[in-house]
Design a protein that fits this description.
heterodimer, A: alpha/beta, Alkaline Phosphatase, subunit A, eight-stranded mixed β-sheet, globular, B: mainly alpha, two-stranded antiparallel ribbon
């Protein structure tokens, strides 16, 4: 945790000291409360939490949530009509098929990018990757963290923005110019999560060692000299970690009982879903969660059992259980956790429609794809937008914007649902170029971004 | 410094210097016995001798190849494993043979290859190939733009990214005087040196490979009307004639374009200036111009007036010019440059300051700045101190290494065939959390985080390595006949390259008395691994 006074360096101060970083910290964070509103937005404020699930690699929309049948379709997809969503591969998405009244689909998504790295960057930031700005540009989760900083209660011990299992191509985007504490707290469920919350049996030994460490290292860690500031800062991170580990809620949040794991499919993604669910139900400081479900990049042999089938089964089970659990958990006032949690699931782009390629796969396809939305005020049971018979072109955008829905629009929707004025900008940036929460210039045209209100009505 | 009446820190003590110079030059902490010997030696030229020994040595070659390839983003996703390994070997050879740095850069900028998997230096440029709507189509002008942006960033310290999309005016007034005056057309003229450069991606049975051809057989030049998949549309017309953006010089029409470009590029004074500044920053933690790719050419020369409201940019213009001149005079001798920096008093000062430190002293380099160890260095330091290596198989090679400084890139841990699956996941996560570069979008970072602290205290990586397992440093130490005091001192020297102070010694003796040498020794190793003077280069 940075000391507060460290945050009040403006770009001009940076120029004055010639960019010489005082203690080897090269990118000084700027104070994000300088964000100013530019327009007249009226955010909905229907959600306090957001779980964003990225289907990394790009889910084939035409084999899943915008299903298009053809002579390539394997028989065992067991295609059936389902209420509201039309044709549905019932063996791939059986659980979601039974819950079409709990979520809505948007079939008029379009991506700006057709490469994984740039596409995944877009999904995390809602901005085009620009190497001149990428060091300072914060992801959506860090913006949410800064906006929610003022609402943070003394009892909130968990980080505002938590990421799960997000590894390259692009990896999890850091806080940029925002303070490090607003950056993603990354949890890898295929690694040993007991580092974050040691089991009860190890607590005593841990506490003993921590006490010893503090005694051994107090001379350096508490030295008030300015040139020892880097050590004090680092000690603050230790204090933060120990707070987290010794909060009795942590060991509950970061635990994976066997029966739960079974319900969620016993895999790393299921584990991440359980922890994400625990984080929002605990309401202990975490508001934005970015969760990656990897390996959707099916260029070849898409219909092999361990490829599209397996991914679909995993995400089907995870989403269905998450929606059930969030709905079943009630706050004291009787509202369900799902009511205040916006859940979004989508890839960085779709995949080429029609017949498979000659290596039996589908390639990247940005022109049209589908996202799943639920909770946080979303009116479930809708299908917004439509593509042509192939799933190649969007024929009906299905919303007031009357054009395809881009990541900028989805970010606008997230900010609106979370009660954040999406027209804000931060003028004082290291590069001198204003950071707009939602970029006013899209890569190729001027878009009037607005929330996808149709989702909520 | 004296002219401005700025006090400076004293020279670092021998043991501190020994640790620092090993970390900076080889990426690893030093051997404890060698450190004690060095501290005890009364040879007045022992520091210079040590530097001469380390610079050019194997550890130095390994460490700096890794740093350079991280900087150049030599990702196997872009150039293939074969291309990456070959490129790595090529750079290591250049460092070992002390190839003049300007010559190395010219080789990379002019390399032609049927495949970058067979010609080491060709990977530098083909890494920046920009795709069209599918992954086989290469966008000719976009690729030229990206190559141009990155070679200027890497070797000239100039960030042309902004003017690659639009003129500098109305954008960069607050940031950079020189860039404000640049036009996008001037950038195109620079990129037009790649107008005849052809890059093709290899496709086998419709499967794309991360393997590229690069030659100068493209005849269409650089079109100002070309569409772009990554930049603001060009919307102009005609073929752009090449001109060097720093001088306006045009190429000799009888010579290959890239050879002409490389000649102008490496002979310009800014090339030497940016190079010495980059290595100075890497050794010192802060550049004379910082950030190292933020040069403002209008504000470099202290003898020329700078615009109203601006200062001369380098914190030490004379130092920068002297280093650059010396580098050119030495024949762009990289080993010489490292020795000059490491032997400078600025480098050898203590990080502690006797009086009250003021931020205004920073630019004088009046003391050494402290930095957290890099992700690789933290892990390597744990391995070295505990003597608990886990061999890592380099992908597509018949080589196993114990230290991350010896790997060929950050992707090697994930791809290592021999590693236990759980250990691999834990180590990958550990490194990512400590800011390891990924050669795609993430540059190496030394920011701290709560997660790092949690992992240092609780990850299986640290907890398992501090145990007195067979073959470990601690297991061996337990077998030696030592007094309690000697036992504690040996552990301190091993982990921190210094003796304990009197308070630390008392605390260690109490701990060993209470818990015994086996358990207390493990505790002590855990504590020292988590001390800030283990985690920082100071």
């Amino acid at each position: 945790m940075r000391r507060f006074e460290d945050l009040f360096l403006t770009r001009r101060d940076l120029l004055r000291i010639g960019g010489v970083s005082m203690l080897g910290v090269n990118y000084l964070p700027l104070i994000p409360t300088r964000a100013q509103a530019a327009g007249k937005a009226s955010p909905r404020g229907s959600a306090r939490f957001c779980i964003f699930v990225m289907l990394q690699g790009g889910q084939s929309h035409v084999d899943s949530w915008d299903f298009k049948e053809g002579d390539w379709t394997p028989e065992d997809f067991a295609v059936k009509e389902f209420p509201g969503v039309g044709k549905w591969p019932s063996s791939l998405y059986p659980e979601l098929g039974e819950r079409t009244d709990k979520f809505s689909l948007v079939r008029s998504l379009r991506a700006w990018e057709s490469q994984h790295g740039r596409g995944q960057y877009y999904v995390q930031t809602a901005h085009q990757h620009n190497p001149a700005l990428s060091k300072e540009l914060p992801p959506i989760g860090a913006v949410v963290a800064s906006e929610y900083a003022a609402r943070r209660r003394p009892t909130d011990s968990l980080p505002p923005y938590v990421g799960f299992n997000t590894f390259p191509q692009v990896g999890l985007i850091g806080p940029g110019m925002m303070p490090a504490t607003y950056g993603p707290f990354h949890v890898n469920t295929s690694s040993d999560i007991s580092s974050l919350a040691p089991p009860q049996s190890e607590q005593e030994n841990f506490q003993r060692r921590w006490d010893l460490l503090k005694r051994f290292d107090s001379r350096l860690r508490t030295d008030p000299a300015l040139e020892k500031k880097a050590y004090r800062d680092y000690h603050n991170h230790y204090e933060g970690a120990v707070n987290l580990m010794s909060d009795p809620r942590s060991s509950k949040i970061f635990s994976l009982p066997e029966e739960e794991r079974k319900r969620y499919g016993e895999n790393v993604t299921g584990d991440a879903f359980i922890l994400a669910r625990n984080l929002v139900t605990a309401d202990a400081g975490t508001h934005f969660i970015f969760l990656t479900h990897a390996d959707w990049d099916h260029h070849g042999k898409i219909y092999e059992p361990n490829s599209f089938y397996e991914r679909s089964h995993e995400i089907d089970l995870c989403l269905a259980n998450l929606l059930d659990d969030l709905e079943a958990t009630k706050r004291p006032d009787g509202t369900s956790v799902l009511d205040e949690t916006l859940v979004i699931t989508m890839g960085e782009f779709g995949r080429t429609p029609g017949a498979l390629t000659n290596i039996a796969g589908r390639d990247h396809y940005p022109q049209a794809y589908t996202g799943l939305f639920a909770g946080g005020g979303v009116q479930p049971g809708q299908v917004i937008g439509a593509t042509d018979a192939m799933g190649a072109e969007i024929v009906d955008p299905g919303w007031a914007g009357k054009r395809p829905i881009y990541m900028e629009d989805i970010a606008t929707t997230i900010y609106s649902a979370m009660g954040i004025d999406w027209t804000k900008k931060i003028e004082e940036t290291p590069s001198g170029r204003a950071f707009y929460y939602i970029e006013i210039f899209s890569p190729t045209q001027l878009l009037a971004n607005r929330p996808v209100e149709q989702l909520f009505s | 410094m004296e002219a401005d009446n700025v006090p400076h820190a004293p020279l670092s003590d021998d043991a501190t210097f020994f640790r620092r110079v090993h970390l900076d030059l080889t990426g690893r902490i030093p051997d404890d016995a060698a450190a004690r010997k060095f501290a005890a030696s009364d040879d007045p030229s022992k520091r210079d001798k040590l530097i001469d020994e380390l610079v050019g040595g194997e550890g130095w070659q390994e460490q700096w190849t890794l740093v350079l390839l991280d900087q150049w983003r030599a990702s196997q996703n872009r150039i293939g494993w074969a291309g990456r390994n070959l490129f790595h070997g090529y750079v290591t050879d250049a460092l070992q043979l002390n190839q003049p740095f300007d010559e190395l850069v010219r080789e990379m900028l002019t390399a032609n290859a049927r495949s970058n998997w067979y010609v080491g230096p060709s990977s530098y440029l083909v890494r920046w190939a920009v795709f069209g709507d599918n992954c086989t189509e290469i966008m000719h002008e976009d690729t030229a733009d990206d190559m141009t942006v990155h070679m200027f960033k890497d070797f000239m310290g100039i960030n042309l990214q902004c003017v690659s999309c639009h003129d500098g005016a109305n954008h960069l007034e607050q940031m950079n005087v020189w860039l404000t005056e640049r036009k996008r057309r001037e950038f195109w003229a620079q990129a037009a040196f790649f107008g005849e450069t052809r890059v093709l991606r290899r496709v086998e049975e419709r499967n794309t490979q991360d393997e590229y051809l690069i030659d100068e057989k493209e005849r269409n030049g650089y079109s100002a009307a070309a569409p772009s998949t990554v930049r603001v549309p060009r919307l102009s017309e005609g073929i752009v004639e090449p001109a060097f953006i720093l001088t306006g010089e045009k190429p000799d029409p009888n010579k290959p374009l890239r050879a002409e470009m490389a000649r102008m590029f490496t002979s310009h004074p800014q090339f030497a200036r940016a190079t010495v500044n980059r290595f100075w920053a890497a050794m010192m933690g802060v550049g004379i111009v910082d950030p190292v790719d933020g040069f403002d050419l209008t504000r470099i020369d202290p003898s020329k007036p700078v615009p109203e409201g601006w200062d001369v940019q380098p914190s030490h213009p004379e130092l920068l010019e002297a280093l650059a001149k010396d580098f050119v005079d030495s024949g762009y001798d990289l080993q010489h440059l490292f020795k000059v920096i490491a032997k400078s008093s600025a480098y050898q000062l203590s990080s502690s300051f006797p009086g009250e430190w003021k931020d205004s002293y920073s630019k004088y380099f009046a003391r050494k700045f402290v930095r957290r160890l890099s992700a690789e260095q933290v892990y390597d330091a744990v391995v070295k101190a505990t003597n608990m290596p886990t061999p890592i198989q380099i992908p597509r090679m018949d080589t196993r290494v114990n230290y991350l400084a010896q790997t060929r890139g950050p992707a090697d841990v994930k791809a290592a065939k021999n590693l236990d699956r759980a250990f691999k996941k834990d180590l990958q996560f550990f490194l990512e959390s400590f800011g390891q570069a990924n050669r795609e979008f993430n540059e190496p970072s030394r920011e701290g985080s709560i997660l790092q602290a949690a992992l240092m205290m609780n990850s299986s990586i640290v907890k398992s390595k501090v145990k007195p397992e067979e073959g470990s440093f601690l297991a061996k130490l337990l077998k030696e006949e030592l007094s309690q005091e000697q036992f504690a001192e040996r552990i301190f020297w091993r982990f921190l390259t210094r003796a304990p102070d009197s308070q630390e010694k008392d605390q260690a003796l109490t701990l060993l008395a209470e818990r015994g040498r086996r358990d207390g020794g493990e505790d002590l190793q855990w504590i020292l691994t988590n001390k800030v003077d283990f985690l920082f280069n100071y």
